Amino acid sequence: MLSVLDRKLVRDLWRLWAQIIAVSLVMGCGVMTLILALGSTRSLEETRSAFYERSQFASVFATVTRAPLHLKNRIAAIDGVAAVELRVVKQAILDLEDLREPASGIVVSLPDHRETNVNRLYVRQGRLPDPSRPREVAVVETFAKAHGFTPGDRFKAIMNGQKRELEIVGVVLSAEYIYAIGPGDMVPDERRFGIFFMSQKVLSAIYDLDGAFNNAITTTRKDAGLKSIVEDLDALLEPYGGTGAIERDDQTSHAFLDAELSQLRGMATVIPPVFLFISAFLVNMILSRLIALEREQIGLLKAVGYSNIAVGWHYAKLVVAICCVGIVLGSVAGTWLGRGMTRLYGEFFSFPFLVFSQGADLYVIASCVTIASALLGATNAIWTTVALPPAVAMRPPAPTRYRRLANTGATSLKLFSPLTTMAVRHLIRWPLRSFLTIFGTSLSVGLLVTALFSFDSIDHMIDTIFFQTQRQDATLTFSSSLSPQAVLAAAQLPGVLQAEGFRTSAVLMRNGHVEKTLQLASQSKTALLTRVLDVDELPVTPPSGGLLLSERVAEQMSVRPGTILELELLEQQNRLVHIPVVGVVQGMVGLTAYIDEQAFDRIMMTGPRVNGAHIRTDHDQLDALYTAVKETPSIASIALLGLSRERFRATIEENILISVMVYVTLAVIITFGVIYNSARIQLSERARELASLRVFGFTRSEVSSVLLTELGIIVILAQPLGWLLGYGFAVLVTKGFESDLFRIPLIINQSTYAISSFVVIAAGVLSALLVRRRVDRLDLISVLKTRE
Amino acid sequence: MLMDSPNSTKPVFHVEDLTKVYRTGDVEVRALNGVDMDLYEGEMAVLLGPSGSGKSTLLNIIGGLDEPTSGKIWFKDLELSSFSQSQLTRYRRDHVGFVFQFYNLIPSLTAWENVALITEVSPAPMKPEDALAMVDLEDRMDHFPAQMSGGEQQRVAIARAIAKRPEVLLCDEPTGALDSQTGIIVLEALNRINTELGTSTAIITHNAGIQKIAHRVFSFLDGKISSVVENDIRSAPSEVEW
Ligand SMILES: Nc1ncnc2c1ncn2[C@@H]1O[C@H](COP(=O)(O)OP(=O)(O)O)[C@@H](O)[C@H]1O
Ligand SMILES: [Mg+2]
């Protein structure tokens, strides 16, 4: 049996349903985003670590030119190393019947007659290749799916200059390639890039690496110092062309997942608090008003002997009840979206299985946080009821005192009509509430700017990368470094209109204690296809005397033009050279350092060499070019920038589109929650006033204009603040996104601000119209009978 | 003390067999049960009667705030009982001044602004300061309602009601919330307006003492007018015994 007070509670809830829905929607968004972000982070983390564990995923990776297999014991003897595998890992060009352009791939060796101890594969279909059958391969699932391959299917690959037909015997997943990206690509393209696995014996024979390896991976013991293992490994492999071992943190697939995870974590820390803050404010607004209206009832309850705590608890229960609605809405939406999102990750990244981690504790956390923040918002309102002495409560509250607008007497009405004056004075009468309402509305503008600006930035990024800096149609990578003659040969390939050679080499940069391994790239003074842009996006040519570093590298190494860096030439027996930084340039993808072509040759002391060529192609002769590339042994891979660009745009825009839809929904909900509630509160406070206006013969639209003017001012004032907040969020987002792989430029077009404002204003108008219907139905007579 | 009788016997309001039935669920309340009455131009009428006898209901209907269940009302040549909602709004705006027990001032507007609120939308208004002067409040023009006493607030409400020079002034218990001294000041203001502007005025009151200031007194009982008494001798408000 409900107590009488609880019955009052139920009736209050029933009466306030519209406002409660509005608040609990906002709250629900907080709960949803919290569950979504925390749940997906955990699911992704746990899926990844489960997969890593099953695969015995390596912690240290090293690449060499050619090293003898007998080094295995010495590597295994390094302190902290648990297991070692020595592999052959090579690039290959793929010739696929269902693809006009050449695809590229990485072929990885598997030990013969035993299971690998490091980076085990997860076999989805079929089996692993048999060493006695040289044509057998296992391919990664994404690649197989993209081409509809199943065991038994065949494809051709150009390996070490020879075209071979390979037979697929298995479809597998690898922890090393959860995220796999082809040369020259910015996002994965599983059609044009595949990973496949073959027997060590077979691969060594193909690549002339009998009794040798070019890639070493190790697992390590739990307590091992990775840094010292890397150092020991580097010392051991240096004579064999070791380019520096890397830790798991720098491994591409792992690093990318990490970036994704930290983004999700960022979302969990930034977005839910926005919603919880707004809902706390809305709860405060509703409760304060309710308590103001029920002042005399509170006095009566106390007078008849209800304790302060009982009265306070009665209102706290109301808050908790509102929270329950929000928690239920948010949990359902969060669970549903969370599963969808994890599944989306499962598709984007190749995991063999997904661990959904939406434990009960997640819901408990979300519920506690929501209730706590709402109660916090309600504190002062509830405290008012507790502190109110019964005798005072029974007396009507002192009438609201208004102030004149600064220095305006009777004459002010020349500027503002009395109706407008009413709106403005009401607005400044409760400055904190008005500010918070404006702030709440501006948060939705900010959220929208944050969601939409990525389109501007990505557009700018595509323009800068593909139209300003990398203007080639394709980039050829040679199998080894060749004499500049090779560029002339490349220019002779059918369909090639123009070819410009480039040289790259792995270097370790050192500035005091800061070290960074990256690819140093040559830039010729006469290059037309590829250009380097300075921070103001103007083309620069590298001066002969030094290095140009991209902003992120310069930041990480804390260098300025003039700083002298120590360079360890990893492909030249770790010879040391000292060279000054002469400029900082723009770089959105990867970590880059440029040096003048001739200067490069000088420091390498090998004479002029090239590693590849950027080419401009004749669109009509592409087929001939592709055929030629597939048949030229010295070309290891071809990166097609046009396709990369399309793929990049498509992938990013698809991802952004989803998030934009989510953000627009969230922003509309916030706007609705804030504007609708503030309108309802206003209506409750001013019902008498507004009804009086109707009595005096003002029309419905004149009367609602008082309310709408105030809302209009709030919404308008919220715009500039929202733009500012949006800009701030965008800065945070670009900073948060920034990784060694990507740097998103901060570009916000005016149209983005305009669209954001438009959506919020539209949502505001809609909420106001809902309240306007109530203004139209005001009961004139009953209002006149009662004292305020 | 003898006062002028109303300067005409032309009715501003003509009410015929008016009934008003409120239905709440199964319960039917006959608030008005066949009321006939005329209110003359320039007349000061007092409506007396026990609580619940239908006075406010009648006043609301002739003021265009409510519609009758049956019966007819004319305001001069206009048949109010056939008016639409928006016509009624227009009618209130142009012709009627209201004064209520609880003043109904806009708290966010000063006295002057509360009056200007109405004058700005009226066809031939007084200046707000002149209206306030008629109720002796010219020195409180810039005060907000919260800064004034009840009597002062009620006088602002009267100034607001008369500033548009309405044909009729309808007052529902204008002194109900006031003590005798302030009540008398308010009645004096109403009397002065009736005399100086010739505004037909209807005042609802509980206070039988007030009936002496009227030209005619309508007594209500159970939704009907039980008697109409013409005062041969009207008292000045200051003589009213509270
Ligand atoms: N909105 C309403 N709904 C139901 N009954 C009403 C309503 N307004 C007034 N009444 C009833 O009509 C009768 C007359 O009320 P009213 O005209 O206000 O009386 P009074 O003479 O005290 O001003 C009363 O019995 C009252 O209860
Ligand atoms: Mg009444």
Counted beta strands of chain A? 23
CATH class of chain B: Alpha Beta
- Low-confidence segments of chain B, given as residue ranges, are none
Oligomer: heterodimer
User: Major sheet of chain B, described briefly?
Assistant: 6 strands, mixed
CATH topology of chain B: Rossmann fold
Alpha plus pi helix count of chain A = 21
Task: Give the CATH architecture of chain B.
Answer: 3-Layer(aba) Sandwich
Strand order of the largest sheet of chain B: 6-7-8-3-9-10
Query: What class do helices, strands and sheet pairing of chain B give?
Result: alpha/beta
Shape of chain B: globular
Shape of chain A from CA axes? Answer: elongated
Helix/strand-derived class of chain A?
alpha+beta
Q: Secondary-structure element sequence of chain B?
A: EEEHEEHEHHHEHEEE
Q: Give the cofactors and ligands.
A: adenosine-5'-diphosphate, magnesium ion
How many domains of chain A?
4
> What do we call the CATH homologous superfamily of chain B?
P-loop containing nucleotide triphosphate hydrolases
For the record, give the distance between the C-alpha atoms at the N and C termini of chain B, rounded to a whole number.
18 Å
State the end-to-end distance of chain A. Answer: 35 Å
Structure characteristics:
heterodimer, A: 788 residues, alpha+beta, 4 domains, 6-stranded mixed β-barrel, 21 helices, 53% helix, 20% strand, B: 242 residues, Rossmann fold, 4-stranded antiparallel sheet, binds magnesium ion
Describe the fold and architecture.
The complex is a heterodimer of chains A (788) and B (242). Chain A contains 21 helices and 23 strands. The longest helix of chain A has 55 residues. Chain B is an alpha/beta fold and 242 residues long. Chain B has one domain: Rossmann fold, CATH 3.40.50. Chain B has six helices and ten strands; from the N terminus they run E-E-E-H-E-E-H-E-H-H-H-E-H-E-E-E. A six-stranded mixed β-sheet of chain B has the order 6-7-8-3-9-10, with helices on both faces. A four-stranded antiparallel β-sheet of chain B has the order 2-1-4-5, with helices on one face. The mean pLDDT of chain B is 89. The interface between A and B is large, with 35 and 41 residues. Bound molecules: adenosine-5'-diphosphate (ADP) and magnesium ion (MG). The site of magnesium ion has 3 residues of chain B, from helix 1.
